[in-house]
Amino acid sequence: MSLIERIGTPGEARVWHGDMPLESEYTVGIAGERFLRAIKDQGVFLGTVCPVCELTYVPPTMYCERCFAQLDQWIELGTRGSVYTYTILTRNLADEAMAQPEVLALIRFDGAHGGIVHRLGEVDPAEVEIDMTVEAVLKPKKDREGSILDVKYFKPI
Question: Which listed residue, of 16, 50, 54, 86, carries a Cα 20 to 30 Å from 75's Cα?
């Protein structure tokens, strides 16, 4: 079957059985590097501001997704945000029951477009609410590596 032939039923699809060795490297880019470095070095979140649309992007980007303007203005957002939405995990990736449920939430910062998906901690999953104000709990500065995992979790305040 060539690339231009149409598959009519799932049984016609070709599959690769077994392991396929892959290697890849992902870079966070210029904006992602500066964003993660601010978390590591200063313990704060940054956003970029579009001078045309007046949107603040979190995570920061180099160009506005609406008007394509270059984003050169960076602002500090602090470490507090609010829960925009969340889910409670009760099973791990191997589909096994977890000893303790975990809460993943989309955290939005005041006045910002977008947000960060991260764990919530120091909270009973039954008490999590939309619009709950939360604050980032960071690893000690000496243990930070320049990763989003430098944020241990967000806790209610």
Answer: 86
